[in-house]
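Suppose a colleague, Dr. K., hands you the sequence of a protein chain of 212 amino acids and asks what its three-dimensional shape might be. Before reaching for any lab equipment, you can write down a predicted structure in token form. Begin with the sequence itself:
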Amino acid sequence: MIVETIVVNHFQVNNYLVICEKTKEAALIDAGGDIDKVLNTAKKYNANIKYVLNTHGHVDHVAGICELKEKTGAKVFLHKDDNFLIGHYKDHAQIYGFQKENAPEIDEFIKEDGFEIKLGELVVKTIHTPGHSKGSVCYVIDNAMFAGDTLFCESVGRTDLPGGSYEELKDSIENKLFTLSDDIKVYPGHGASTSIGHEKKYNPFFGKSGLI
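The predicted structure, expressed as tokens, is then:
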């Protein structure tokens, strides 16, 4: 598995291009914009972007979907509980300084925990992790987890936006993510990568050495 981090838009969102080394099938984890950067990275590996896997529906993570879909035909996934955010896309785009265009089209809604997607010889496993938003998910591929804005390096996602809930976030992290293997590498939606083991120990919100 090849993982390339592509930092996009004025919110400095981490988008991740995940490539099956054998088949060259690729998935983009979130599509926040700067699509030429994404396509150039895919071209470097001769990879075909088959899917866009959204960790959640906030505008900074979905603003590039329309352009990418137009240029690649990639199939777009999002959890059903964040469809209401797509419905407010134009308003949010205007508020947060993104181009006010049509809302991105979602091809398939993830409806259950544990939903799996095959990417070449890789299997993408979905964990529903509400808290940052109702439809937040994390994607686990082999020994890597793409956490969106649920879990950061020594931090967690904000819960004061529509659909956010601190209690749901706490449950998602403590009872879902922290039950995973310590050596799983965590690729967050913003900032540096980390690991489950590091966050279980040092996360100031929920780690054993935390301050809260």
